[in-house]
Amino acid sequence: MQSNKMVQGKFWTLRQHFVGFPKETDFELKEEELPDPKDGEVLLEAVFLSVDPYMRPYSRIHMKEGDTMTGAQVSKVVQSRNPNYPVGSHVIVNCGWRTHYLSDGSDLKLVLSDWPEKLPLSLALGTIGMPGLTALYGLEEICEIKAGETILVNAAAGAVGTVVGQIAKIKGCRVVGCAGTDEKVSYLRELGFDQAFNYKTISSLEDALREAAPQGYDCFFENVGGDFTSVALAQMRPFGRIALCGSISMYNDEIPQTGPYINSYMILKQLRMEGFQVTRWEYKHYDGLKRLLAWVKEGKLQCREHITKGFNNMPAAFMAMLNGANIGKAVIKI
Amino acid sequence: MQSNKMVQGKFWTLRQHFVGFPKETDFELKEEELPDPKDGEVLLEAVFLSVDPYMRPYSRIHMKEGDTMTGAQVSKVVQSRNPNYPVGSHVIVNCGWRTHYLSDGSDLKLVLSDWPEKLPLSLALGTIGMPGLTALYGLEEICEIKAGETILVNAAAGAVGTVVGQIAKIKGCRVVGCAGTDEKVSYLRELGFDQAFNYKTISSLEDALREAAPQGYDCFFENVGGDFTSVALAQMRPFGRIALCGSISMYNDEIPQTGPYINSYMILKQLRMEGFQVTRWEYKHYDGLKRLLAWVKEGKLQCREHITKGFNNMPAAFMAMLNGANIGKAVIKI
């Protein structure tokens, strides 16, 4: 199973910290030679890579200039000296924006064993991956949604939002979603959202939210942040729960956005707001992925992807995703 | 037990809605004649009345001009045709700012039966009343404090804050409190707060909070709102809990205060913030009051009151309390 010539890999680094919206020159494409795997090791080749909104704030908080861009991928084992990961098997690995990676196996997860042949493996980065789990935990652990409740989700046509809306429907909730293009809004209706609107073409977010759910919202799955939060909070029902998942409208701000303090709404309606990260429930990821896969197999959970071809296009795909170009999960296919 | 002459009562109304900080002319003192109680009724005479911060936002949300000011009092039964409330017994009743009140008994709560003779009945409006329960529920139900954790409380020398800090100490926490005068800060130290500072004389709230707890805060009992919230949030530890109890710095604003959106902090640290009102746990008030009384009897919970004499001085006492003149609970004694 060993090759005799060195493998040439490519990887993307953060050349310089983003200032405002990322630009091409903030990234640098580099090459490296990877040695043959030693005993216990496997050599991986990327098949699908993920670009996600969190990478923008992550770079500011956790990275220094020159670091490899962070992120997960589905990769194929191309050389193996680890019996748990034979050549040809597919794994999920959080090894950053790179075409090849040498692993000792400790950071690998095999794709679920009952993954259907016909199902694209890229879904392991989306609906049946971290974004899907994020939606699931946000609704179950943070919002604690109950049948009959009304749920609001913004950035609803994104990787997480599409799953949020569909799981809420599976669980018997009424779902209102909003997104930034008419095409996205049509897609939300296709997915079974009860109400959907384009926040860019309405005259008043306050009115649009009120018309979509005159009785108010029990839960709010928040992916956007900024003004949206304070406008939506005013329309929560008593004891409403707000799951803070992301703040895509704020990630590129150099000067933090300001708005009215929310304390009064929170106290008056006895609202609960909680920020969360999917990693909190790592101990039950496996169970969560099985449930997501089952819903997909049953046809209850539709998946849509926005695929960009070519590793060299990763920065462009990342920036397009931050700009909202994608419907569903943004994925790079090698 | 019946008197033959009508009782003359006084009550304070909201003459006009407050604009900004309340002023004397916003209140109007009125008189009324109360008839003798009918069968099942009792006639009450106020002994102690409460002024609390919540009355300011309450007036805006729930009252119209001309309404009687809202609030609780300890009153004495002076005439009775209800065997549950004999003449001479003391009750807690939420009948507003008035000297006399005719009740059918359905809105009365007797002072706890094991209330010690030597303990002022006014405490039933403070440490062994709604403010005490507010502190208790905020810590137990919202913050879910655990021994060894570090708790921050602001407006710490107030009716609620003094109880928050002391209960947190009883439960084995480290407590940091802040208040607006040096005298209050000394009192917090007397009560056993681990750290206390005067937020009006420090040069930087951020630095003062960091120095008081370099490791950060697990819980934050928030009585103040506004800028304090966002500065303090930045110093919460991962999985920190914030109990939003009041926003005294914001109640008199005509234009809502603004500040940086907190979403990023909330997500990064996975913080949970919840607004609450003491009424949520009414079913266990009795149990809560018994526990508070027990701590007072054991000497674990000190009580301090700021007493204003004279029903006619209620508006002045209310305004002084909003201005922070009180250490401990602000009470009016007839």
Q: What does this 3D model show about the protein?
A:
The structure is a homodimer of 334-residue chains. The first copy, chain A, has 334 residues and is α/β, with parallel strands linked by helices. The first copy, chain A, folds into two domains: 7-125 and 303-333, Quinone Oxidoreductase, Chain A, domain 1, CATH 3.90.180.10; 130-279, 3-Layer(aba) Sandwich (Rossmann fold), CATH 3.40.50.720. Helix content of chain A is 26%, strand content 27%. The first copy, chain A, has nine helices and 16 strands. Chain A has helices spanning 55-62, 130-143, 159-170, 182-190, 205-212, 227-233, 263-268, 285-297, 314-322; strands spanning 7-14, 27-34, 42-50, 73-80, 90-93, 100-103, 108-110, 150-154, 174-179, 195-198, 217-222, 236-244, 258-260, 272-275, 305-309, 329-333. In chain A, the strands form three sheets. In chain A, strands 3, 4, 5, 6, 7, 15 and 16 form a seven-stranded mixed β-sheet that branches. In chain A, strands 10-9-8-11-12-14 form a six-stranded parallel β-sheet, sandwiched between helices. In chain A, strand 15 (305-309), helix 9 (314-322) and strand 16 form a beta-alpha-beta unit. In chain A, helix 2 (130-143) packs across helix 3. The model of chain A has no long low-confidence stretch (mean pLDDT 96). At the A-B interface, strand 13, helix 7 and strand 14 of A face strand 13, helix 7 and strand 14 of B. Strand 14 of chain A pairs antiparallel with strand 14 of chain B.
